[in-house]
Amino acid sequence: MKRIIKKVAVIGSGIMGSGIACHFANIGLDVLLLDILPRELTEAEQKKGLTMESKAVRNRVVNEHLATALKSNPSPIYHQKFAQRITTGNTTDDLKKISDVDWIIEVVVERLDIKQQVFTEIEKFRKPGTLITSNTSGIPIHFMSEGRSEDFQKHFCGTHFFNPARYLKLFEIIPGPETLPEVVDFLSNYGEQFLGKTSVVAKDTPAFIGNRIGIYGIQSLFHLVKEMDLTVEEVDKLTGPVIGRPKSATFRTVDVVGLDTLAHVANGIYENANEDEAHDLFLLPPFVNSMLENKWLGSKSGQGFYKKEGKEIRTLDLNTLEYRDAKKANFATLELTKTIDKPIDRFKVLIKGTDKAGEFYRKSFSGLFAYVSNRVPEITDELYKIDDAMKAGFGWENGPFEIWDAVGVEKGIELMKDTNQKPAQWVLDMLESGNKTFYTVKEGATYYYDIESKTQKKVPGQDSFIILNNIRESKKVWSNSGAIIEDLGDGILNLEFQSKMNTIGGDVLQAINKAIDLAEKEYSGLVIGNQAANFSVGANIGMIFMMAVEQDYDELNMAIKMFQDTMMRVRYSGIPVVVAPHGMTLGGGCEMSMHADKVVAAAETYIGLVEFGVGVIPGGGGSKEMALRASDMIKKNDVELNILQEYFLTVAMAKVSTSAYEAFDTGILQHGKDIVVVNKDRQIAEAKKHALIMAEAGYTQPIRRKDVRVLGKQALGMFLVGTDSMQVGNYISEHDKKIANKLAYVMAGGDLSEPTLVTEQYLLDLEREAFLSLTTEKKTLERIQHMLKTGKPLRN
Questions:
Q1: What Å distances lie between residue 674 and 223, 677, 692, 698, 708, CA to CA?
Q2: How do residues 199-219 score in pLDDT, each as one tens digit?
Q3: Burial 620-645 (b: 16+ CB within 10 A, else e)
Q4: pLDDT beneath 70, residues of the chain
Q5: In the 8-state DSSP scheme, what is residue 340?
Q6: Phi first, then psi: what are they for 108, rounded to 5°?
Q7: Which of 282, 283, 334, 648 is paired with 469 by a 20 to 30 Å CA distance?
Q8: pLDDT tens-digit readout, 17-31
Q9: Which helix (H) or strand (E) holds 112?
Q10: 360 contacts 220 by C-beta, under 8 angstroms
Q11: Gap between the Cα atoms of 196 and 602, Å rounded
Q12: Which residues contact 43 (CB under 8 A, 6 or more apart)?
């Protein structure tokens, strides 16, 4: 049976419920968000003469929850206007409206009795065949559906979103005893294709997959930190980006999530997983119990493992339970990994460390390896689901079995022996059967070890993805130190940056030109995309800084011209070029996107021209392009200056979109040309598809523009008056004013006496001249140096 989701009802509007409602609104659905009636009037409501029958009062709980969610940072919604897709109401007056929705999601408090009461009410209005799911982090699914109708039970299961619903990709689906297989399949596909999630079907076991492994990891560290006498800072240093985990690492993550939330899940596992060999690890250690008694729950209570006092962040001493000044954590073992770019390549080095860090990694990884091996087949029959869950739900770059493969399966078992741990028997059987790794890559696809058949089976669902890690070597066409060109098949090439933070320097520019050369001679189109954390943080400012300091201005001029010429080559080549930005897409990465035939952006794309932060204007065609786009926006009888001013301010304020959808507002992405995909995993495949469509439709090289309307002195005068008043009002510094005036000169087309049609090259020359002149300024060099040292902009 074909099922189309047009409208969703979310019952419960707390942090999780509002977040889920916002994410369904993100993807374009009509959402009904309901919550309970308030118990009494507030003082403000009484003063207004409202009663308990007033609609504003009756919907107060849901409206306040949603308003709080929409004001939160980071935002749960891609664009504030998407909130209009959410209709609010209360469960007393409006529950009957669920009769015309396609999916009902219950997100009330984590108590079985209350959930069952809600389901009793839902059954009165739910039409047969409607999907009904519960967002629970651990209540057994089979208990929730007891006593419900046959149709309810067939269409019911758990759907566990991770908080925040917009940003964390894990979507656990937990079938009940009677759930129809086609319902599970539908939800799994819907999660991947529409919600942009990693769908993982889990068994109905305590805490399911993500939290079972994740809470084990945190609890084991809670015990290990005392055993090894480690500080909070040391653990966060050891368990953060160095091993491919979020910057918040362990203790900062617990502060953000809330210690009470973690304790609730840990207690649930302790009470319900009696057969777990690590059962005692889920007992909360004394220091955690003391923190819970003190209500030191983390961010929500103002203090947890960290506490902000004025501008200082102080740290909890786990021995004295008193806050102290932060201490820097340093380990010799970590120094050995500084030259290793990818976390997956660091693990072999980390476990060999001879200091406390090496000991920590040997103990923590041996415990983790043993634990995950013993959870198969208890929580899942397929080991890859555990890795998927940890990567999507906890932000790990590599899952436990991937890390074990990187260390070596036999080496992992050796570590276990040293710490009195042992793997599940199936791991030993795997080695005996001749399979030496949990994963293999064949013909561009990932295979995993299947316990039942003792063979490697293809991980399902890969056909809609292109995984660059799997084809990088086998499909490589050309490479240099900064980039790799791969053959995606069907006549489409992909150019993948490999530089640090995907910065754009000479080697990347060479690769762009080479990719276009190859595509024009032997292929049909080009995608510029990668699957790193960020698309590109922009030009290599270290190189610019060195040239400027050495006053090698001829060389710098040539470098800027090469950048400009390469961006123009992206625009004016004989084949379609599709750019696929995601994550941070700043400066030069943004300029490249703006010169593409089409942008296929991931929804989570934070894109903008940020060059003001390092004391220059966009010099790779970005300033020119904003002037050109302003020109194209002007219609008959428009106030031309107002339109140009909007584009000017986007650059001058270094605006960065908080989603791809916001980038349409700034003019960086263009309606009718560029598109957004919610699932980043599908982005390269989608970009390839669009390159192919353009090629097959008969792509012809565009003609260079000679019709860019610039306003000359008319616009320049307005901009100069504006920047002068901003400086007088102390809104900007003298150097900010100087940069803004240089940008104004470029976007106005110089000091022409009247509006004039000019070429793109005319604007590029102005842009390059302005950029070059700013690099001679001492304050610009200070800004660049500060950015290189701290990663943060300097306002001088």
A1: 50, 10, 15, 19, 21
A2: 999 999 999 999 999 999 999
A3: bbbbbbbbbbbbeebeeeeebbebbb
A4: 637-638
A5: -
A6: -90, -175
A7: 334
A8: 999 999 999 999 999
A9: helix 112-125
A10: no
A11: 10
A12: none
